[in-house]
Amino acid sequence: MSIATLTHAGRAAFALSLSKQPLHIALAQGEPAWDNEDAELPNTVELTALTNEMGRRVPNIVGFVTPDDEGGIVISEGLGSDGAVVTTRYRMVTGPTPYLYMQVAYDLTDAPNGIIRQMGIFVGSTVKEGLPPGQRFFTPDEIDEPGLLLAVEILQPAIPRNPQVRQAVEFVLPV
Which member of 16, 47, 69, 147 has the lowest number of beta carbons within 10 Å of its beta carbon? Predict the structure, then answer.
């Protein structure tokens, strides 16, 4: 018996299903020890929560993208062996693809003095009842059920939040 292959259409179906769920992009302070160049980082595959979460925000945009060398969405893949930034470009499309796109812009008051060492995408989170209508950023004490940690990233170097700068983050999640 052979193992079934998940097709591109099947991956697009998973991305479509995810896009219809409650999604939050969370910020966490992580551990200050992660700032060291030779720091031992946690195995992110096994994580179910972020370390010292500051809060999470509902994405401004959830949609689908496809790789495109001339696309306007540029995602960092990290540093190459030569120290140069490696990027991949995407463009928005209307129908589902295996690439789920999320964009979030944090307000100036969202964890204004924190240091971001870790970010994560949560699916299926629920917030406590009685919060103001239209609220989009939630601190850990305002979360009822944290949901599932879908993806996580440890940022090196860490990014200090600045209450004078509205930071925006884009994620492309290949499904």
Answer: 69
Length of the chain: 175
Domain of residue 144, residue span: 8-174
pLDDT at 28: 98
Total domains, the chain: 1
- In this prediction, residue 110 carries a pLDDT of 94
Model pTM score: 0.92
In degrees, rounded to 5, the angle at the alpha carbon of residue 174 between the alpha carbons of residues 152 and 162 is 40
Q: Look at residue 3 and tell me if it is in a domain.
A: no
Span 69-115, pLDDT tens digits: 999 999 998 888 898 999 999 999 999 999 999 999 999 999 999 99
How far is the CA of 94 from the CAs of 49, 62, 97, 104, in angstroms?
Answer: 32, 11, 9, 19
> Both ends of the chain: CA-CA distance in Å?
25
In a domain, 126, yes or no: yes
Task: Round to whole Å and give the CA distance between 73 and 78.
Answer: 15
The C-alpha atoms of residue 53 and residue 11 are separated, in whole angstroms, by 30
Q: Which of 77, 66, 73 is nearest to 153 (CA)?
A: 77
Domain assignment present for residue 2? The answer is no
Residue pair 67/99 in contact by the 8 Å Cβ criterion? yes
Residue 79: the pLDDT is: 81
